[in-house]
Amino acid sequence: MTQTSRLAGTPLSILDLAHVRQGSTAAEAYANSVTLARHAEKLGYKRFWLAEHHNISGVASAATALLIGQVATATSAIRVGSGGIMLPNHSPYIIAEQFGTLETLFSGRIDLGLGRAPGGDYAVARAMRKDFRPNGEDFPALLEELRGYLAPAKPGQPVTAYPGAGTNVPIWLLGSSGFNAALAGELGLPFAFAAHFQPDNLLPALELYRRSFRPSAMLDRPYAMAGIPVIAAETDEEAEYLATTPQQMFLNLIRNHPGPLVPPVRSLDWNAIEQQTVEAKFRAAVVGSPETIRRKLELFLDRTQVDELIVATNPYDFQARLRSYEILAEVAGLAQHADEIQPDIPLEARQAVTR
Fold first, then answer.
1. What whole-number distance in Å separates Cα of residue 183 and Cα of residue 30?
2. Is 12 strand, coil or helix?
3. DSSP 3-state of 174
4. Which residue intervals define the domain Luciferase-like in the entry (predicted)?
5. Which residues pair with 182 in a beta bridge?
6. For 60-84, what is each residue's pLDDT tens digit?
7. CA distance 330 to 338
8. How far is the C-alpha of 193 from the C-alpha of 174, rounded, in Å?
9. Domain map of the chain by residue range?
10. Which of 130, 230, 333, 337 has its CA 20 to 30 A from that of 55?
């Protein structure tokens, strides 16, 4: 009897932060994002999401909506969206206009993933929103306001987002704790957990989301996605070597010295506490050869029962990054489904976009 592969039936997506490499520029990072999105589309990946970050040297995805438009223009079928927009940084009305515009330009291809963290430090949060509340307590109210702007306009509504009203851009809630997990469940929205940097809270958050879930007009059952780091190469040794680049990225963040992606190294110069901290952040990472990747991802899917994976792959060499996504696609059998992707999804079929 042939054992059923969960990996073969699980959609795969990509999370990108437009990382700048040491010795390179933001312009190259943007060009690489576009190239990667085109490559991902051909390979059969489902989504290409960009994450909002600020005041972090080496991360060039601050103007997230602009990059989403650039990537969507360069592709034709893959869904493009935010992973996510940090809603407390912004006026919900402006986000409704921005994503209503994107949805109007790229019908049926735009996702709006929302988080409640600042995507940077407190100083930059205050620079963007003078009334910023660091605990995110206003997030549910901001979300309700945003959803109202994206819904069909009501008679007598004093402020209408145009474009935006009636576009019903699919909203996801993102999180690394239980707050958005519970909120997504209560509202019947899809939920994405950031295990690529906060893996220890993954299982409790997924359990809370599923337990809290109430069917909605968007979903009749829970739909959960996990973000994880994946680096695939021809051998385990090569993949582990390439993985020292994102490990150094975490190490530099711990040391409060963020910067561009640095080349891989044969050994890392860290103390015991730094090593434990980096390894904890990297705990959900899947690194290795094709067979190792397949085995570890099957175990991860069996353990978490997530419906979709969104993968962050950040080696220093861009060709190694492309090859890693190729290997993952081959292992998961994405190529055989690539031709099934439909560029336009009718409005009435929106309930199915996450399934």
1. 33
2. strand
3. strand
4. 12-299
5. none
6. 999 999 999 999 999 999 999 999 9
7. 12
8. 6
9. 7-230+304-350
10. 230
